[in-house]
Amino acid sequence: MDHQKELDRTRFFDQLHELAEQPLRQAISVYQNLSIDTLDRPSADGGWSMTQCLEHLNTYHRHYLPLITTTIAKDPGGSSVNVKRGWLGNYFIRLMDPDHKATKYKAMTKHVPAAGLHASEVIAEFMDHQERLSKFKNDILKNFILFGKSSISQR
């Protein structure tokens, strides 16, 4: 099994951009318009409320967005035309893919959301994270071209 999947940089960032834009559109069109009671209501199967699900994602954003920012700052133009993911990255991508998710997993303790959250604050933070993630794609591609590493210059 090939554990070093290599992706075209432009395609990778297009996918990243869409992964950020889709939940942002949903937050704007759906979550902002729901009542606090609806957002805070636990799911029918006793699982987390919508607010808690968004807060769960926020905990990961708080961890990974600073790491992404630091990585971009270290290599603003990108050192390669391609993006390589290791076996661990591929594992987590498959694990979180809703189209292939057959097993329910427990969240790590530090990512389990508390009860009694303020839904409006959680949604605002979630939207901010999605906007930052979306902006990364634009910044990276702009720097990629500025530093002369576009796919055109590689020919």
Automatic annotation (TrEMBL):
Pfam families: DinB_2. This is DinB-like domain-containing protein. It comes from the Bacteria. Coiled coil: none annotated. It comes from Mucilaginibacter gynuensis. Residues 29-135 form the DinB-like domain. InterPro entries: DinB-like, DinB/YfiT-like.
